[in-house]
Amino acid sequence: ILYDSDCGLCRWTLGIVLAWDRRRRLEPVALQSARAQDLLRGMERDEQMASWHLVTSEGQIRSAGQALPDLLALLPGGRPLCTAFRRFPRTTERLYFAVADNRSRLGRLLPRTAVERASARIREREPR
Fold first, then answer.
1. Which neighbouring-strand residues pair with 98?
2. Residue 25 neighbours by CB under 8 Å, 6+ apart
3. pLDDT tens, 87-125?
4. Where are the alpha helices (DSSP H) in the chain?
């Protein structure tokens, strides 16, 4: 799962997702890293930074709202939400970008300690 490490809301959200991922199926990768450049080879830099991305073990890339169903399918108990998001893909995409387009403003509402806890959880799960 590729995320913007400069975005507090992104780190906070990823921290929640990683806590939910009790089977440890997800590996966080910062979009600013060389590993991200390798995983997203061929994707323009602007497109890379426009949203988060989920890359499967087969190398398939899903981004933004389109990636939510695939992400939820990986998480324990995520199937009902996965089904809902698959059923309404345009709504899912709109909701995603409503949040993403306001991430700086929303991020300022988060307590610093919450973002710091999420950042620590991400560091624990990043590949060495």
1. none
2. 74
3. 999 999 999 999 999 999 999 999 999 999 999 999 999
4. 8-20, 34-39, 45-49, 64-74, 79-87, 89-100, 103-107, 112-125
